[in-house]
Design goal:
By secondary structure, the chain is mainly alpha-helical. It has a domain at about 70-300. The chain has 13 helices and 4 strands.
C-alpha cells in the first residue's frame, strides 16, 4: 500500500490573499461615510447657528485639515509600517502638492489682488514682468491636478530609484530624505524661485469659479477630503491584503531572504514609495484651499518628524492606527496651542517617548490588549 503523499507546502508569499474587509469592516466604513457625507454636512449647513447640534465652520475646517494629515499618516504607514522604510521627508511631498494647487489658486485671483494685476502680488512687488515658464497652463484646474500627482510622484520615483538601487536603508535613508526636504525648503525660501519666498501663497479667492470662503464650498472640500481618506484607506487595505502586501511585509522583515526567493525588492519598494508620495501630494492639494496658505515651512524636517509621530502613536502597520494617531495628536495640538502654547513641544516629545517605551504598538495595540479587535 502506497503511503499518502505529504501535504503540499505553501510559502507565505504564495498564500491566498485575505479579503479587503470583513463584513464588520464594511459596516464600519459605511457608518464613517454616513458621518462624513450626510450627518456632518446636515449639522453644519441645515442646523441654524446657536442650536445645540450645529457644527461650526471652525469645526468643519479643523476636521478637514486633520483628515488631510490622516491621509499623510496612512501614506507613511504604507512605506514605514508595512515596508520598513522610515522616511523623514514626507512633508516635502505634502508641500509640493500644496504648492501645485496653490499656483492654480493664485492664478484664479485675477486682478483682485492688492496691485490689481494679472500677476500675483508678490511678483508685482518683486518687479516681475511675466510668469515664469513653469507657471504655464496653471490657470487650468485639470492641469493643476496633473501637477499635483506628477511633481511629487516623479520626484519620489527618481529619488527612490537611485536610493533603493544603491541599497540605502535604515537610518541612512531617513537622513537622506530629511536632507532632501531641508534642501527644498531652503530653495523655496528664495524669492527668485517664483513661489512667494518666505510668505508663500495666500489670500486665495475662489476655486473652480466658486468663492472659497463660503460654507457650501468649504463643505464641498470637506466631503472631497473625506472621500479621499476613505479611498486611500480602501486602497491601502487592498494592497496590504494582497500578495503584493505579503512581499512588502517580507521585505520589511527579511529583505535578503526575499532576494534569495527570487524577488527584486527594488520594484516593490519603488512602487509603494511613489504611491505614498502621490497620496501625500493629493492631501496637500486639498489642505491648501481649506487652510488658506502654503509656505516653505510645510517642508521643514520637523513637520516630517511629526508625521512619523502620528503613525507611531496610532500604531504602525495597521492603517487604522495612523489615522487615529493623526486625530489624537493634532486634536491635542489644537487644544494645547491655545491653552498652553509654550508647552506643546514638550508634550509632543513626552508623548513620543511614552509611546515608544510603553506602547510600541501604539494606541491600536492598547485597544487590542483591552479586548478590541479590528473588524
Amino acid at each position: 500500500m502506497n503511503p499518502m503523499p505529504p501535504p503540499q507546502l505553501r510559502t507565505p508569499l504564495a498564500a491566498p490573499p485575505h479579503p479587503v474587509l470583513t463584513r464588520g469592516g464594511w459596516a464600519t466604513v459605511t457608518f464613517v461615510a454616513y458621518l462624513l457625507f450626510v450627518l456632518v454636512p446636515a449639522l453644519n449647513l441645515l442646523v441654524p447657528e446657536g442650536h445645540a447640534f450645529h457644527l461650526s465652520d471652525y469645526f468643519v475646517t479643523l476636521a478637514a485639515k486633520i483628515m488631510c494629515y490622516a491621509i499623510v499618516a496612512l501614506a507613511m504607514d504604507l512605506i514605514w509600517g508595512y515596508t520598513g522604510i522610515l522616511s523623514l521627508g514626507h512633508g516635502l511631498f505634502f508641500a509640493l502638492g500644496g504648492y501645485m494647487m496653490g499656483m492654480y489658486l493664485m492664478r484664479s485671483i485675477g486682478t483682485e489682488g492688492v496691485y490689481h494685476s494679472q500677476l500675483p502680488d508678490f511678483m508685482v512687488f518683486l518687479d516681475w514682468k511675466a510668469y515664469p515658464w513653469y507657471w504655464s497652463f496653471t490657470d487650468h484646474f485639470a492641469y493643476a491636478l496633473l501637477l499635483v500627482v506628477a511633481v511629487p510622484g516623479l520626484l519620489a520615483l527618481v529619488f527612490g530609484y537611485f536610493a533603493f538601487r544603491s541599497r540605502i536603508k535604515g537610518v541612512y535613508f531617513s537622513i537622506i530624505t530629511q536632507a532632501l526636504s531641508y534642501a527644498f525648503m531652503l530653495l523655496f525660501f528664495r524669492n527668485d524661485t517664483g513661489f512667494g519666498g518666505n510668505n508663500g501663497f495666500t489670500d486665495f479667492k475662489r476655486i473652480l469659479g466658486y468663492p472659497i470662503a463660503t460654507p457650501t464650498t468649504r463643505m464641498a472640500l470637506f466631503v472631497a477630503t473625506g472621500a479621499l481618506l476613505l479611498a486611500a484607506f480602501l486602497l491601502g487595505r487592498a494592497i496590504v491584503t494582497s500578495r503584493l502586501g505579503r512581499v512588502l511585509t517580507a521585505i520589511r522583515d527579511a529583505e535578503s531572504r526575499v532576494m534569495f526567493c527570487g524577488y527584486n525588492p527594488l520594484h516593490y519598494k519603488l512602487f509603494i514609495w511613489t504611491l505614498s508620495a502621490v497620496l501625500c501630494g493629493i492631501a496637500g492639494a486639498l489642505y491648501v484651499p481649506q487652510v488658506g496658505i502654503i509656505n516653505p515651512g510645510e517642508m521643514s524636517p520637523a513637520n516630517s518628524i511629526e508625521i512619523a509621530i502620528w503613525t507611531a502613536v496610532g500604531g504602525r502597520g495597521t492603517l487604522v492606527g495612523p489615522i487615529l494617531g493623526a486625530f489624537i495628536v493634532n486634536g491635542a495640538k489644537s487644544w494645547f496651542t491655545v491653552a498652553f502654547p509654550e508647552f506643546w513641544l514638550f508634550f509632543l516629545g513626552l508623548l513620543f517617548i511614552l509611546v515608544t517605551l510603553f506602547l510600541p504598538q501604539g494606541v491600536i495595540g492598547l485597544l487590542r490588549r483591552g479586548g478590541w479587535r479590528r473588524p
